[in-house]
Design brief:
By secondary structure, the chain is an alpha/beta fold. The protein has two domains: 202 residues, 3-Layer(aba) Sandwich (Rossmann fold); 163 residues, Glycogen Phosphorylase B (Rossmann fold, 3-Layer(aba) Sandwich). 38% of the residues lie in helices and 17% in strands. The chain is built from 15 helices and 16 strands. The strands form three sheets. An eight-stranded mixed sheet has the order 4-5-3-2-6-7-8-9, sandwiched between helices. The chain has a six-stranded parallel sheet with strand order 12-11-10-13-14-15, with helices on both faces. Strands 1-16 form a two-stranded antiparallel ribbon. The protein is globular.
Length: 420
Amino acid sequence: MKHDRFRIAMVSAQESGAGQFVHVAGLAAALTAGGHDVTVYTRRECSRPPGRDRTEFGYDVVRVSAGPAQRVDEDEIVPHLGRLADSLGREWRDNPPDVVHAHGWTSGLASVLAERQGIPVVQTYYGIGGSARRQQGERLVGGEATRVAAMSSSEVFTLVRMGVDRRRISVVPTGVDVRMFTPWGQSAKRGTRSRIVAVWTTASHSGLADLVKVLCQVDDAELVIIGGPGKRHLGRTPEVRRLRAFATCAGVADRIVFTGAVPREQTADLLRSADIVVCAPRCEPVGHASLEAMACGVPVVATAVGALADSVVDGVTGVHVPPGRPRHLAKVLGGLLGDEILREEFGVAGRDRACARYSWDRVAADTVRAYERAGARTSGSVQLAVSAAPGRGDLVACGGVTPAAAPRAPETDDDESSGG
């Protein structure tokens, strides 16, 4: 299928969220591989001077001075969005893109403030809701953006309740690097116990505490929690200390391993070593961990919330559990650990689903359709035949976006809901 060759300006004002970090890099690499001209604009977050760099994957990264040259939370970024918008506006007056794709609500604010030439703006949120200031900003961006790319079916309903016209919404989930995350390759060493794996998150709704508590009800199983701060800082991290206290009280401290921060290749090795991967947050707007596990051929037990409700098919690639119900979670884990054949069936189906619905080439194609529906037009065209996005390498040396894995959710055209 032929599509226009777009000049795409991606704006990622804040890169501290892991979900946004992975999605922007993977999508930029896949779109570039498909023949599009991609530039990622980001707020400078290190001592490196402002400027433009060409990444190994062929897209450019432009670092813009707007506020302190360090990572800050979104409330601290807001006062500097005017300066970011001014810089973007000057850049686009001289070198206008065909479409602007804003990632995160702060990026959306800067983009709609900067755009003054009728260039369509496509907005991707990475979760909706929070402080009053954030909700106000999200509503403003939702009203001003040409189109919104929702990351899950449930986000569509949230956007409609927020006042966004359903006809301006496309469902475009995140993706996964199906060449890095595979069932084949090295697996991390393990003992004789069954292995349950979860991925670290600092969110208060992560579900990790519930998972630690239920371990005492799952015989002869260990829990490996991937990611988080570096090993030297684990003991000083409040959330780790809290989880370890839960484990001690439950009598399972000797069955829990915190890996700390690990390279993405090692993440794949750890996932392959799992009997089950558990994703049990109370909300999940992106859902990378579930897709990486599925791509590795590992069954997933997940709460049926947000992007997880789309990616994990209950009874096909894993099992859905209600959030905040540890006894139910323990029962499901015990049953699945005792059924090797069912785990194998879920793993095979999960790999197939990850490749068919969540590979970066599929996500790039869905994104291009969203751009077209937003009215992006150009005279050139390319044959869209995108290879899987690379799985390693930094977008910028000072902590930019790293192409890696991410999840793919529903069917992706505006009027389609996610399928099984």
